[in-house]
Amino acid sequence: MLHRLALLIAVLLVATPATAVAATGKPVVVDTIAVGLNPRTAAFTPDYRFAYASNAGSNTVSVIDVRRRAVVATIPVGSFPYGVAFDRRGRFAYIANRDSDNVSVIDTEDRKVVKTIPVGDAPRLAAATPDGREVWVSSTASNAVTVIGTRTQSVIATIPVGTAPRGISFAPGGRVAYVANSDSDNVSVVDAEARKVTATIPVGDEPRGILVTPDNRTVYVTNTIGGTVSVIDARRNAVTATITVGKNPRGLALHAGDRILYVTNSGSGTLNTVDTRTNKIVGEVALGADPRYTASGPGKRYILVANTGSASISIVTLDC
């Protein structure tokens, strides 16, 4: 078993999307990386050489060398760091600090904070537009999304959405954004150019994570209290299916080929895999304590999962 895991890790690190092995729907944890206290999210740099994990309990960001699978730097940021996003080139990282109501801008070459940007109340998750020109931050207690321009590193817009926004995901091309509003149990569909809500979609109980598929046909939403995933038809702006998963689902990611969806369950300490053609669960694996949000690796061949209660990052892929 250990030899098989070692071989699998090697394949993940060197394979290209075209040469990666075919995979089943059974998830497997191939490694675990110790980071700071209470990590909430992780994100890869655009070149996938490094990953940044936000450590809410230690007010730091861990910089992970992806090939070595080890922390190579720890950067102090604001209070209770949460969301992580990068500009297009990966020169700067943007860290949403929930309790200090600001965003720390990290120079990724010098690995230090070079600017602090005040935003709305209780900023949580962050997402960069596909062109990397903007970073959107969910200001949960302000019921709004704060838009930061990466050229000026300043707030350029504030967009009112639903109550207590959390996850943000952009459709391909970046003209439409979807925002999960945890306290109003709905998703705001936002025209990213006009900066206004054009539709509101009711979903399950306390939506937090959200993901748009690359073909722009489907939006997945984790309903944390409901223990479900809502499947939204993006053309109709309507829920077409509800999938029961583990307890308190949070993070979402797709595996290469987009036929398998990963769902992390913070309340049950597990990850489910779902067949996107049938909306049926096809696998489950135990993770660390309180797994939260995910980051997709190169070619979507594996993901990182932040385990809040274990101060660690799990590397998860599908069994071959």
From TrEMBL:
Pfam families hit by this protein? Cytochrom_D1 (PF02239), Lactonase (PF10282)
Q: Which Gene3D superfamilies match?
A: YVTN repeat-like/Quinoprotein amine dehydrogenase
Signal peptide per UniProt:
1-22
Keywords assigned by UniProt, alphabetized: Signal
Name the source's superkingdom.
Bacteria
Matching InterPro entries: Host-pathogen_enzymatic-act (IPR051200), Lactonase_7-beta_prop (IPR019405), Quino_amine_DH_bsu (IPR011044), WD40/YVTN_repeat-like_dom_sf (IPR015943), YVTN_b-propeller_repeat (IPR011964)
The answer, when asked if RNA-binding is one of the entry's keywords, is no
- Name the NCBIfam families on file: beta_rpt_yvtn (TIGR02276)
**Under what name is this protein listed?**
YVTN family beta-propeller protein
Q: Which organism is it from?
A: Saccharothrix tamanrassetensis
